[in-house]
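Q: Could you write out the predicted structure for this multi-component system? I'm mainly interested in how the pieces pack against one another.
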Amino acid sequence: MAYATLIKRGAYHDSVTLLNLARALRGRPGVREVGVVMGTPANRDLLAQASLLTDEAATATANDLVVVVDADSAAIAGEAAASVQSRLAERVSRRDDRGGGRPRTIGAAIRRMPEANLALISVPGAFAAAEARRALHAGLHVMLFSDNVSLEDEVALKHLAIERGLLLMGPDCGTAYVGGVPLGFANVVPRGRVGIVAASGTGLQQVAALLAGRGHGISHAIGVGGRDMGATVGGAMALSSLDLLAADPTTDLVMVIGKPPAPAVAERVRSRLRAIGRPAVICLLGPAVTDGREGSIITVATLEDAAFAADAILMNRPWQPLAFSDPDARRRVSDARRQLTAAQSSVLGLYAGGTLAHESLLILDRLLGPVASNLTDRAALERRAGHRVLDMGADEFTVGRAHPMLDPTARVEAIREAARRTDLAVLLLDVVLGRGAAIDPAGDLAGAVRAARAEARGRGQGLAVVATVVGTAEDPQGLPAQVATLEAAGAWVLPSNAQAARAAACIAGGDVVIDSLLGGPGGRA
Amino acid sequence: MTTHGRALLADGPRVVNVGLEGFAEDLDAHGVPVTHVGWRPPAGGDVVMARRLAALDADITIAAANEAVLARLTGGHPVLVDCRPAREAMDLEDRVVLHAGPPLAWERACPTMQAAVLCAIRYEGWAADDAGARRLVEQGGVRLAPCHSRGAVGPMTGLISRSMPVFVVENRAGDNRAFATINEGLGAVLRFGANDARVIRRLQWLAEEAGPLLGAALRAGDGVDLRALMSQALRMGDEMHQRNTAASALLTRLLMPAVARATAEAAAIARLAEFIAGNDQFFLNLAMAAGKAITDPCVGAGPSTLPSTLVVTMARNGTDFGIRVAGLGDRWLTAPVNVPDGLYFAGFGPADANPDIGDSAIVETIGLGGASMAASPAVAGFVGAGGLREALALTEEMAEISAGEHPHFRIPTRDDRGAPVGIDIRRVVETGITPLINTGIAGRQPGVGQIGAGTVRAPLACFEQALIAMAEARGVAG
Amino acid sequence: MDRVVAVTRMSRAVAARLDAWSGTVGHVHSVFERAINLQWPDGSLLALHGPGPLLAPFAAAVDDVEPLRWLRIGTPVTIGARRLVAEGLSIPWPRVEVVDCSVDTAGGRGGRSTRHLRHWRGRHSASLDSAPGVAGRARLAAAIRERDAARLIAGAVTLLGLGDGLTPSGDDCLVGALAVLHHVDREWLPRGGASAVGAIAGSALERTTTIGREFVLHALAGRFSEPVLAVLRAISPDEQRRAVACLVRLGATSGADTLCGMRLACRSLAA
């Protein structure tokens, strides 16, 4: 237990600067607690209560800035305190930058903000690789939000990044959490002990939101892009990220989320996890994945299971996968089925989140038989009637339109069209909340949902609408309010995407499916 | 993935945002340090050009060559040592008239340039009148060549012929010399295409009295350190293109004692002193010669030996704008000049403006002039660019396309940071930002003189051509 | 040649001071991203910020705040004839809009228009939930409910200087409570609560930052920033929603902490 104090007499910095400073100091390895306050009597009392009132801090007066660091060692405390000077000076120099206009290039931006350490790149795919290369050459880590980057470019960029000891998240990385800061489309979750390597954006969002729902937070979540663990890229970033998390003192549990990797890559990932030695959860969304345990490494097949397995490990209690959290699920399924006519038998999934669509597709396929999807075989989509799962974020639906997480138009139209079908039993939806997403995504769909159910009722048919909301109470949209909006429109909202898919399968598939999930021991697909 | 990665996780991200502005706003609202880049597709969206750019950006020998050239640009040390007739100092032969800008055929020259050439021919006595002078030129009896090809530079029409006295500037960081005439002053002068007896009388006085006196004064001492003088003037509000007031005053202070000692004729001293005192732009020609002295050693032998993408010459002849790039040797890349845009003196307007003309853009090539606009907010107002804020913004813009900052030319209003220097053709093509030049606006009618002051941009086409040439030379498929 | 930055709006308090103090020399006290503060010989402040509502009862809005941010702390600033003069900078007010930041003239309707604030559910700063924060708020609430000067002093003293920010959260909370109190019962503080006013003003000197104190002193006299006044004056639900949203956006938690104090006072006055 060692303290370092820094007093800046007569120093005036705005609140955002000080909050940012406090957060940065707290994030340093080895730092236990931090106080960044003006030295008023009331604040000195607060410091005293937090055991942070050093002798030096006690001499501060109301117009002095007081920084006290409590760390594992004198060296760490001293370094942290010393970093305050340069941080505040950086802010000053940025404030003094009177050069007008925005920088037009990454190089110029770095000249304006020499302390920059990460480039967040979301320019059109044709130009993204070049910008990423520039950023890496300039020594910045990269979060490559852009998609439509060629596999060749991805390989080259990741080699360059690794050469320089830098991270390249992506391409097509929409979500990340770095040092407690959410980047891109991200839900508001607490800072915590779970470190995640994710090859999928909405997959990460689902897991993070479910963890937050159980009170667990994320230390860091690094997005590596959907192709990273394939044979060509060879898991380059996944492995580097695992090494980073291994060295991170704030991470107690490591999680990997993605599709099943190429076999060679899978083996490398497992052996890296074994070497790390900390509890680990691998969530692989693929057709032949089964749950399993190998030492401290648990393998699961759904995003929900990833979150719940992690929760079980962190809380040191046993874990059993569940079909539904709602004990009343069977009754709700029956109620829904009662309103269906004989003609109604298919499921239509309209998804904003690509990974969520993929997960649903796998579950529905296993429980109901062949499901057509634009994720697998676009041609088959044309030919087949019956069950469908559509990733509305895919290119064919986003020409001239924003992504469905931002713009509901495409899905609303699709719901309207679907309402005319007489064979449709279940409409399956996802709603994704968080920073960067639409202001009221549930509200955007509620009207169309209500209308669709009314239209079906007019024909004497009951249309079941099953949904999941991926988010937290702290998200700007607020999880409870969004759930309420959908329920008011007549949807059955389940707590996870996997459960929603199962519910849809039960309603469409009837007793055979229900029994396989809920009847008899060990019956769970 | 060691220290960089761990530092990122421990400190949190400090972000450069390229693309969707919403991300930057969101991060800023949550107290995360972020700078948003006003990104535009490189090369205006031209995919082929962007590919060339990417290839040249990845070329490490170019990077090394640029460093070498930048070192020469910032290390050049011009010193004014003498003033002598061009026939002596430059070995300039008979029946040759040097002009500003890239090579120019007589038929393409603008009326102002033609009028000045005719006047120079009459001054030298090669023809008795304009008609005779015109015939001489048209029939090849008198040759035209760029000042640049003979180690010299000239403002506006920039004419030099063998009888004219030229300042001699030595580059102490190398072994080359550069030359420029004595600035004639304002109003009806050869530089603006005036062609009458007054002009010739003045030129004669310069050759017979002013030039020799200045030469004697300079030869008696160790020379005037122009680099030190310009650094000082930069801190006094000059940018050495449109504003040379402080520099001219400093030079006068340095020269007059030696001038006074060089002759017993008080009247001659007085005439010279009055001449200099009445001309705020007296130093301009010396700033230009200094620029020439600094940049000449940067012109390489070719792209295989020194593949540098930095610009070493920018010059206009009233018809074409020409640039030379260090890695492309002596080759001129030209495009039609633009017309300057700015403020006009009473009674004049844009219709009266002559197209851009003069070698004075050499000043921007070494980081002064438009690049140092932030040092001279008064000029910003004078050329219609605005106030201090706009001036700072313009210098920042130049910094976007420049390779480095000048260690000797520092700008107080920019926290004493060095002036942006070393224009890189790759950055120009990528961002579409072309170099900004502070310039006087000459009247389209020969002899009217200066009718205003403003800014003009170098044409993008020159830099695109240069990039294509460089790419070809480096074996990049177009 | 001096750069000219013109003042477009100023509070009445600022206008009065500038009229009366011609020739006075102050200095630059602090410089921020979007505002600067000048300090006069008596310790009081004048805030200068960019176009928009006055963010303090002691503020003036200028047409362009950029050039002001170059001023170094400590630079002398003189009040000249209808302008402020600093090095290289002239800040005149040729055609200025004078704004009354005083609650007294806000017009009637007192309690009814602020009733909605009782239900404000936003998140204030954590320091207001600390032991002294909770205690201070409780004392303040009781003081307002019973018009008890002694408890008002006690509550204020506990809250002054508490928490993050240049205007500490406790100060913001106090200012918010005072705003509603002045709005609903404008008689009490100047008369029955006069002793409290003096005592709190005195404590503010040592217990909080210079900037926080300036806000508190004005608040005791019934003067507030325009965003706060807008919340008090908003009548229709739309106006109220907008005004509250605007106030919440101020500072990191400053606006929210002010609303916390306003809610506290509304609830206490309704009881």
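A: Regarding packing and overall arrangement: Chain B touches chain C through five residues (CB under 8 Å).
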